[in-house]
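Reviewers asked in the last cycle whether our approach scales beyond single polypeptides. To address this, we selected a multi-component target totalling 628 residues and predicted its structure end to end. The input consisted of the following lines:
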Amino acid sequence: MTERRGDPGPIVDRALETLRELPAIDSVVVARIVAAAARTRALDAAPNDDDLLPPPAQLRPTRWRLAAAAAAIVITIGGMLLWRAQRRADGDLASSGNAPVSTPYVPATQARTMTPDALPVPTQFVFDGRARHVVLVGDFNNWDEHATPLEREPGSSLWSVTVPIQRGRHIYAFLVDSVWTVDKRAPVARDPDFGVTGSVILVGRP
Amino acid sequence: MMRALIVFAVVALPATLVAQETRSARLEGKLDGETQAAVLRTLDSARTRGLPLEPLVDKALEGATKRAAGARIEAAVSMLMRRLEAARDALAPNPGPRDIAAGADALAYGATREALVTMRAIRPNESLAVPLGVLTQLVASGVPVARATRVVADLLRRGARDEQLIALNNDVRTFVAAGASPQAALDVRMRGLNAVLPPGGAPGVVTGANASPTGLSGTGKKP
Amino acid sequence: MTHVLSAFPVPDPEPARPVVDSTLISRAKLGDIQAFEAIVARYFTRCMRFAHGMLRDAADADDVVQETFVRLYRALPRYEERQRFDSWLFRILGNCCRTANLLQQRRESLDTGDDRALLSVPSTDRPDAAFDQEWGDEVRRALAEVPEYNREIFLLHYVEGFSYEEIERITGVRQSALKMRAKRASDYLRTRLAGVHRD
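The resulting structure, written as structure tokens, was:
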């Protein structure tokens, strides 16, 4: 329960009972919100407003905050050194089976706080064919038929989308006008569970 | 220290409950009531065993997208849970969720528990998601399990990077598509890699393998 | 979409501001729309509650909450976890509510500032609420009469459970001023509702 702060009195307390009631969750509105957000490009420059940063802290840091800040700095520096060392040792990009990956994107803040192994890899999927609507489904997007539509290159039959995917082996397919379609350029994935063949992609470090 | 643990538990518990609610919400509307209830029971069981739950939810959603019958989805999720547990035990100690899922995947395609144990021994501190994925894919391509396991393990001991393993798999697939047998495709590609990688037991191996200096067929010691 | 099923323990319907799973945030930062959806589902009702309390026209709540989450999603790549996620979310939400109120005020062409009562009272769209409807309507009307700058602090502190320290970080206003604003809102409601409240 919300912590009582001071004592506003019984009348206000009773008013707060009313005000604290949560409305029912409206799944239609939630879906609309998610769809609206998905249409925006999260990778664009952030809005030019003051949403991003809080006002300067006006409090003297406690000992705990100092310790936490020191730990965060050590981890960040360690992670950066490890990441840079591994990048120097890396060879060419290799993600199998598909068209070359588009310009890799790793948010700078994410790179500072994640180990290189845990960084998802921007991976491009390309479908070539005539269709009205092409969607990517796979084990990296919950097989959601609405999550990852491909975009068509104007004037061509090439459709593509780039999604961040964890390193390793993944299964996917295209829904081409709602029809399950394997990627002709990728290895076939036998499906021992459901008997519906998919496509395989092996994602490595960029 | 105790205070920090208590704070962590207080913070983590609601986060866990939120995650449970989220998983349940994702299954809503995708499965019929009976299947959903069965899947949730499996999730509950997996949770008490300390297994990663995302692969199980994913499997259920995969079945839903593929329009599989409820009973089949239920069976697939249940079997995956058993594979996750076997993979977790084979990849001990403390494998990450991605490694467990990759291990379960490998087991599904015929890799043995011993193969997973071997890989973990060679690479105790790094993710095995890519090597296990390559192993899975080689086996799926028709390379016998034992051969595929020996090859991947040997390459790991000799410091092969994930990208080299993926490239190996790509090339095997290309050669097989051109008509070569999987075994021959693997052999020819290994000849190429042998020219690039140090022999087994060379110092400075990136993966930290505790390899013996016995060349290609060397068996690494467990750390 | 309901988010409570019998197979899992049912959380307190009024949890004391649990921290969202940092893995979800990490994934959402990378554009994982499923992770973002989980975040929206987690905070949606709190945001709607706050928006209903803040807005001149409660019918704007859906749009304001949507705008908030879209702005949050776009700003996520630059979110740094040195601040609490919900503090940051409510900062954006507060900005959106104030902007919506300003636009609504201009539409209404009022010059009496924030003392004007809300025209609509959202008292019927809550099937799971168990309260006296008349009392509920009165509470909301009274709240609407509180000046926006006092109402916001009152809602953040007494309804959403933020400490004054956190509200200072959210709004940039000093704690002493925050306490005064919350008190003024509380005093107004006490006086205003005294005639309505029946013990």
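Confidence is low (pLDDT under 50) at residues 42-50, 52-61, 86-114 of chain A. We regard this as preliminary and will revisit it once experimental data from Aim 1 are available.
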